Every structure is written in structure tokens, then in C-alpha cells.
Amino acid sequence: MYAARLADAPDRGCTAVATAARDSSVHVAKAAILLLGAQCRAAAHVPLLDSIAARTGTGAYDWHRGAQATVALAVTDAERAGARIHALARHPSAFARVYAAHAARHVRDAALLHRLVRDTSANVRTAVVAGLAATIGHAADSVYVAQLATTESELLMAAAAALEGTTHPDALPRLLDALDRVTALQRETSRDARVALLERIEELGSASHSNRIRPYLSDFDHRIVARAARILEQWTGSRVSGVVRPLPRLPLPTYREAAQLARSTFVLVMQDGGEIAIRLMPFDAPTNAARFARLARAGYYDGLTIHRADYNFVVQGGSPGANEYSGDGPYTRDELGEPNWRGTVGLSTRGRDTGDAQFYINLVDNVRLDHEYTVFGVVTRGMDVVDRLREGAVIRRIREAAR
């Protein structure tokens, strides 16, 4: 909201933004630092950004201001940002190193991006692929092809996008192999990656590759069946049809199981000692409440992170890959109806009926999410803990307690 007002009075408004960049609240400071690199790109703010970037901590919870300032500095003064970016690229947190990759993209530091492509984190390599594609394009095609050896959806999507228009001789064989390998996992959450791979295969392939695509005419995902049929029709000029063979659905809980869940509280014990108590809504969102409970009891969420913290919106976590595209294998259906008020717990999706056990907690009343996203729980204690969550916050474990 404040950012929109800057267009009318940038000089006066940016002075206030610079003051806010020093705010005691990390969330407020990060938002202000972002604006300093986006709408307040004045030389006068460079020393401030540099001083904040210089104080990037090496712990799990003290790097956020510095990482955001490094990116803003890269946008504002590329030469001055160089040393800060290289320091951030050595940070022990993969979340922080993602910021380093973004900053390297802004200053077009292809050498650093090439070094970061060896990072152990798929999220860092995803940012690297996007950075190389934006800075040197097809000169890094061998890098994109090499990343197709992964099963990480977001990285596969980035590599497939970067290979648009490529002439690299290994691109098509590696794309086809990646498609087969990810499909063999039999996980509905692979949809986005498989669609991206098929899109690039359609561009680079021909009728001579039809036998590699025909098996997908009887896939478990209707989107994949439709895409495979379209590709074959494009390649061969013949009408093609397929059949969907869906994977087994998750069962609904019994009334007794739902009643038991309604009497329980699930407590997220964070790495820093904070606790967030959640009451599930098994009679409003039975499938999704039951899955959350089942996974929590099995230790699925233990050690996972909060990978998104959008102040004045939501915090989101519960992804094994710490990103939007990694979650529990089967999709669950939408169970809409409950409002997205502050403190409610919802299900992250990427389209209708694509719940994968990632969850978000509303920091404010987000009425625009109503009838679009499933709400399956509500925070009954610990909203102060939720409010201070940052990217990379670790869920130590979830314990169940009777109410």
C-alpha cells in the first residue's frame, strides 16, 4: 500500500522508507529494504544498504535483513554489492544463498552463478538456473541439461524453461529421461514439473520420438494425458485419445476418527522453543484435517521449515523441499467453506484439488482467499510465535495433546 503511494511523492516517501529499514521488526525492515531497491534507487541510500548488508549474521535467524539489503544493493550499486554478494554466497543457510543467487543475477555475475550451481540445495540451483538464463542464456545450456538429472520439481521446471529454443544435442534425450524418472515416482505432486518437461519436449521433439510419449496416454494425471495427446497430434497429424488411470484416493476419516481429532490439539514446537497450538476442523475439512494429523503423528513435518513469510499475508511451510512444489505425494480435494481469517490454517495449492500437505497460517484476514483455499484448522495459542516466524524457521516436531 505504501509502495503505491511512493509514485506520487518518491523523495519525501523514500526518506520514511529509509527510516523504516532500521525498524526493530524484521518484517517491517525487510519490506522497507525491498522498497529501497525497487522504488527508491537513490545513491543516498547506498551507504545504508551497504551497512545493513555488512551485518548479515551467520545464524539461522539473523541473516534476513542483510540478505534483503544485499539484493537491494545489487540493484542500486552493482560495483559496491560485489563483495557482499560473494560473502552471502558462503552463508550456511540455503535460504540466504538463494538471495545471493538473486543478487548475482542483478549484477550479472555469471562466474558466481556458475560456482553456485554446485550448491547442495536444489533451491539455490533453481535460482542459479533462472539467473544464468537471464544473464547469458543458451551459453549455459550444458548447466541446464545437467540439472535435469534431479527429481526436484521446481528445479526441473526452471531447467526446462531455460532450454526453450536450445540446440544442445543432449537436451531432448535428458528431458525424456527426466520425464520417465519423475513419472516412475507415481506422485501427483510431480504434475507441474512433468507439464514443463512435456512443453519443452513438444518443442524440441518430432514424430520419431512418439514411442517415448505414447505411454503417457494412460497416465494417472488427466493433465498429462491431455498434454501427451496434444503432442502426438502435433507431431503426427493424427487424432489421438487417451485414458486416465488415477492413483488410489486418500480415504475419508470415519465419524469416530473425526470426533477424536476434534478433541485434539496439534502443537508445532519450533526450533527456537516457540509453540503454536492448532485445533483441526475435521467436520469442515475432513480429508485435509485427517491427512495433517496422520502426517504429524508419523513425524513427517519434523525438521521441515517455514519457507515463506509474507508479512501482512501468510507464513507457509511443511514442504520437504522447502519450496512451493514439493509435498506429500497424493493430492487432496478442496474442502472450501471456512473463511481465511487471521490465525486460520489453510492448505497450499496450485489449482483446484491440488493439496499436498503444505500449510499456511493467515497473518491477517485474507478474505480474497475465501472459496479458493481450504481452511482446516485454527491457531488457538501462539499467534505471537506465528507473527515472528521468518524464512528458514524450523519445525522441530509436532506433538498431539488432548483438549
Structure description:
Helix 6 (78-88) packs antiparallel against helix 7, helix 9 packs parallel to helix 11 and helix 13 runs parallel beside helix 15. It is flat, with a radius of gyration of 23 Å. The chain is an alpha+beta fold. It has helices at residues 2-6, 10-20, 26-38, 46-54, 64-76, 78-88, 94-107, 110-116, 122-135, 141-147, 153-162, 171-183, 191-204, 210-213, 222-236, 255-262, 286-297, 383-387; strands at residues 264-270, 275-280, 305-310, 314-319, 344-347, 359-362, 375-381, 395-402.
Computed over alpha carbons, the radius of gyration is 23 Å
- Secondary structural class: alpha+beta
How much helix is in the residues? 40-55%
Instruction: Estimate the strand proportion.
Output: 5-15%
Q: Uncertain segments of ≥5 residues (pLDDT<50)? A: none
Shape: flat
**pLDDT average, as an integer?**
94
Q: Quickly count the helices.
A: 18
Tell me the series of helices and strands, N- to C-terminal: HHHHHHHHHHHHHHHHEEHEEEEEHE
Let me know the number of strands.
8
Largest sheet: 8 strands, antiparallel
Oligomer: single chain
> What is the first-to-last residue Cα distance?
40 Å
Main-sheet strand order equals 3-4-6-5-7-2-1-8
